[in-house]
# Entry
Amino acid sequence: MQTEQLTSLITALVPDQKPGISKQYPEFIIPADKVNSLARELKNNNETLMDYLFCLTAVDRKDGFHVVYHMTSSVFRHTLVLRVVLADKVNPSVPTVSDVWRAAEWYEREVFDLFGIRFENHPNLKRMFLDDDWVGYPLRKDYKDSFTLER
Amino acid sequence: MEETLMDIDLKDKEEYIVNMGPQHPSTHGVLRFETCLQGEKVKYIIPHCGYIHRGIEKMCEKLTYPQLLHLTDRMDYLSAHINNEAVSLCVENAMGIEVSDRVKYIRTIFAELTRIASHQLWWSAFGMDLGALTTFFYGLRDREKILDIFEETTGTRLIQSFITPGGLMADVHPNFQRRIKEFITYFRKKLPEYDQLLTGNIIFRERTKGIGVMSKELAIDYGVTGPSGRGSGFHCDIRKIAPYSAYPFVKFNEIIFPEGDTYARYLVRMKEMWESLNVLEQLVDNIPQGQIMLELKAIKAPKGEYYQRVETARGELGVYIVSDGGPSPARMKFRTPNFSNLFIINKIASGHKIADLVAISGSLDLVIPDIDR
# Structure
């Protein structure tokens, strides 16, 4: 599907989408509460069939945490990026997409572990790499601990 | 969703928990499988990772691009060249520069040598997982030839950091082409031995056929890529989907087996070694002349976000750079193949015997530092 068609499809589903940052792939910034329903639609729609989520990650920016979803279709080979901006930096939370793509379950656990972003309705949201009693979330820009080497 | 330890009815004496790892030879690194067993049968598996988490993504935020390159070798140490290439390509795309054809050819030759070396080591260890010790000697004997080629040009054998943004660290050794041609002839003779030793073995076939079946839908849903995904019929070879470096110039086949069992994943890797030899043969005599390293004033990615996909020996590696325009990235994310390939194990190994779990985890070819980063 071409970028124009994708834009019109996503605009029809989420009227308040905004064009994204990436120039490489078509990208849309969508509100957090729409992410699960849009993901489900993109996966099941016969014209998009976005069945393969190849990257889910987060970025700590000045305007909040960005949760970035890279997805592609194993049938049509078109790639799409969705972005959710979470302005609340103290208690960021976004609905899970692990019920849409199983791969997301562990990507989301990793993001929770390192950024402290809560994924609502996630089946098993707990730390993945760090100990359960670890204080803080290392990939946040304001993270400090006694081991950090300052340059 | 897996059950957790708390959910298990401990009164049921038939079930018990066995921790496989973090120090267990068949996990090939520090990974722990919390396995619930019913007799000899695996009820479910919970993988626990993080034993070798070094915070590479956090470290990258403090390092310049040429510096952080050296950390990427330490993720999937058996695909070191390809990891370097992924970062280099991403930075080059961001800067809008293109390397010479010579660099592209040499990069691809190194990538394919890496793929063969990695599959050789996997084959050696996989045979050993199943109790065939001889494979280890055969595999490592032939892998040594590739490591010698690496050593001659790059100076090191395992983690080379040879491919850098802008080109290569140095030109190749004068013996480079001759040694590769010798290796191709040598290994074409040796590969049938691998089949005689293991592939045709009836015990091996009984241990792998129909074990750990993964459907194509499951592979896509879990994001299982590389030979493990292609063993389930998932067309996921990035060299075909989004060709980079010298892959547009060569002809090769994407190996697909639809069965999805351990044996299919095994066959994919065996056939891929043949294909890699074909790729090497097409490239080695045709390396064009050109600049080895572009003269760059500073290596800085302009403000923006960049993503690069490459095919390592184990699947799709994604490098995601968020840059503010400085010499180091604001955020660096590695989408590593082993991370996604690991979690399928509960789905495909449940219900099998514990000895089959070793075969299945071996056929997924996990490299643990790549999972934890």
Q: What stands out?
A: The helical segments of chain A are 3-13, 35-44, 104-115.
